[in-house]
Write a structure and sequence with these properties.
Helix content is 6%, strand content 38%. The protein has a 5-stranded antiparallel sheet with strand order 6-5-4-7-8. Strands 2-1-3 form a 3-stranded antiparallel sheet, with helices on one face. It starts with 11 loop residues before the first helix and ends in a 5-residue tail after the last strand. The protein has 1 helix and 8 strands, in the order αββββββββ. It is mostly beta strands. The longest helix has 8 residues.
Length: 133
Protein backbone atom coordinates (compact mmCIF):
# COMPACT_ATOMS: atom_id res chain seq x y z
CA UNK A 1 0.00 0.00 0.00
CA UNK A 2 1.27 3.47 -0.91
CA UNK A 3 0.16 6.69 0.72
CA UNK A 4 -1.53 8.62 -2.09
CA UNK A 5 -1.48 12.39 -2.54
CA UNK A 6 -4.66 14.43 -2.49
CA UNK A 7 -5.47 15.43 -6.07
CA UNK A 8 -7.84 18.32 -6.69
CA UNK A 9 -8.53 20.87 -9.43
CA UNK A 10 -5.57 22.98 -8.28
CA UNK A 11 -3.06 20.12 -8.43
CA UNK A 12 -4.45 17.92 -11.25
CA UNK A 13 -2.08 19.48 -13.83
CA UNK A 14 0.91 18.53 -11.63
CA UNK A 15 -0.11 14.86 -11.35
CA UNK A 16 -0.97 14.70 -15.06
CA UNK A 17 2.57 15.97 -15.63
CA UNK A 18 4.23 13.35 -13.44
CA UNK A 19 2.41 10.62 -15.37
CA UNK A 20 3.82 12.17 -18.56
CA UNK A 21 7.33 12.38 -17.09
CA UNK A 22 7.20 16.16 -16.58
CA UNK A 23 7.72 18.25 -13.48
CA UNK A 24 5.17 21.06 -13.81
CA UNK A 25 5.20 24.31 -11.84
CA UNK A 26 2.15 26.53 -11.63
CA UNK A 27 2.56 29.90 -13.39
CA UNK A 28 0.24 32.88 -13.32
CA UNK A 29 -0.76 33.77 -16.87
CA UNK A 30 -1.47 37.37 -15.77
CA UNK A 31 1.87 38.29 -14.16
CA UNK A 32 4.15 35.30 -14.80
CA UNK A 33 4.82 34.48 -11.13
CA UNK A 34 5.63 30.84 -10.40
CA UNK A 35 4.52 29.04 -7.26
CA UNK A 36 4.61 25.73 -5.52
CA UNK A 37 2.50 24.23 -4.14
CA UNK A 38 -0.21 25.13 -6.63
CA UNK A 39 -3.31 27.01 -5.56
CA UNK A 40 -6.38 28.72 -6.97
CA UNK A 41 -5.14 32.34 -7.01
CA UNK A 42 -1.81 34.01 -7.69
CA UNK A 43 -0.14 35.20 -4.50
CA UNK A 44 1.53 38.06 -6.39
CA UNK A 45 -1.42 39.63 -8.25
CA UNK A 46 -4.54 37.74 -7.03
CA UNK A 47 -5.44 36.62 -10.58
CA UNK A 48 -7.18 33.30 -11.14
CA UNK A 49 -5.58 32.83 -14.59
CA UNK A 50 -3.41 29.76 -14.00
CA UNK A 51 -1.05 27.95 -16.32
CA UNK A 52 2.14 25.99 -15.85
CA UNK A 53 5.76 25.69 -16.96
CA UNK A 54 7.60 22.41 -17.40
CA UNK A 55 10.59 22.60 -15.09
CA UNK A 56 14.07 21.44 -16.02
CA UNK A 57 13.87 19.07 -13.06
CA UNK A 58 17.10 20.20 -11.45
CA UNK A 59 17.81 21.88 -8.16
CA UNK A 60 19.76 21.74 -4.92
CA UNK A 61 19.04 20.66 -1.36
CA UNK A 62 18.03 23.68 0.71
CA UNK A 63 17.24 21.65 3.83
CA UNK A 64 16.40 18.05 4.70
CA UNK A 65 15.11 15.66 7.35
CA UNK A 66 15.62 11.95 7.80
CA UNK A 67 12.36 10.20 8.68
CA UNK A 68 13.07 7.23 10.94
CA UNK A 69 9.74 6.68 12.71
CA UNK A 70 6.80 6.01 12.53
CA UNK A 71 6.60 3.49 9.69
CA UNK A 72 5.12 4.73 6.40
CA UNK A 73 2.99 2.28 4.37
CA UNK A 74 4.88 1.15 1.27
CA UNK A 75 8.21 2.71 2.35
CA UNK A 76 11.39 1.37 3.86
CA UNK A 77 12.89 3.52 6.61
CA UNK A 78 14.83 5.74 6.85
CA UNK A 79 13.37 8.11 4.25
CA UNK A 80 15.35 11.19 3.19
CA UNK A 81 13.03 14.13 2.56
CA UNK A 82 14.44 17.39 1.22
CA UNK A 83 13.29 20.92 0.59
CA UNK A 84 14.66 21.48 -2.91
CA UNK A 85 15.50 24.83 -4.49
CA UNK A 86 14.47 24.33 -8.11
CA UNK A 87 16.41 26.19 -10.79
CA UNK A 88 13.13 27.95 -11.69
CA UNK A 89 13.09 29.78 -8.34
CA UNK A 90 10.54 27.82 -6.32
CA UNK A 91 11.00 25.30 -3.51
CA UNK A 92 9.50 21.84 -3.49
CA UNK A 93 9.47 19.07 -0.89
CA UNK A 94 10.50 15.68 -2.23
CA UNK A 95 11.87 12.27 -1.38
CA UNK A 96 15.56 11.78 -2.17
CA UNK A 97 16.31 8.20 -3.21
CA UNK A 98 19.58 6.30 -3.50
CA UNK A 99 21.29 8.80 -1.17
CA UNK A 100 21.87 7.62 2.39
CA UNK A 101 21.12 9.67 5.46
CA UNK A 102 24.91 10.03 5.96
CA UNK A 103 25.47 11.30 2.38
CA UNK A 104 22.73 13.91 2.04
CA UNK A 105 23.95 17.49 2.44
CA UNK A 106 22.76 21.03 1.94
CA UNK A 107 23.69 22.26 -1.52
CA UNK A 108 23.75 18.77 -3.09
CA UNK A 109 22.65 18.96 -6.73
CA UNK A 110 19.56 16.88 -7.50
CA UNK A 111 17.61 15.84 -10.57
CA UNK A 112 14.01 14.65 -10.67
CA UNK A 113 13.09 11.12 -11.64
CA UNK A 114 9.66 9.48 -11.72
CA UNK A 115 8.46 6.42 -9.81
CA UNK A 116 5.42 4.85 -11.50
CA UNK A 117 3.28 3.33 -8.76
CA UNK A 118 0.34 2.27 -10.98
CA UNK A 119 -1.73 3.57 -13.92
CA UNK A 120 -3.12 6.42 -11.81
CA UNK A 121 -0.07 7.54 -9.82
CA UNK A 122 3.49 8.48 -10.70
CA UNK A 123 5.49 10.14 -7.93
CA UNK A 124 8.40 12.49 -8.46
CA UNK A 125 11.54 11.40 -6.61
CA UNK A 126 14.93 13.07 -6.51
CA UNK A 127 18.37 11.61 -7.18
CA UNK A 128 21.89 12.98 -7.00
CA UNK A 129 22.30 14.92 -10.26
CA UNK A 130 25.50 13.19 -11.31
CA UNK A 131 23.81 9.75 -11.02
CA UNK A 132 21.29 10.51 -13.76
CA UNK A 133 22.05 9.98 -17.47
Amino acid sequence: MTVRPMVNRDSQFFWDGTRAGELRIQRCNACGARRFPPGPACQSCDAYDRGYDVAAGTGTVFSYVVHRHPPVPGKELPIVIALIDLDEGVRMVGEVVDVSDEEIEIGMPLRVDFNRIDDELTLPVWRRAEEMP
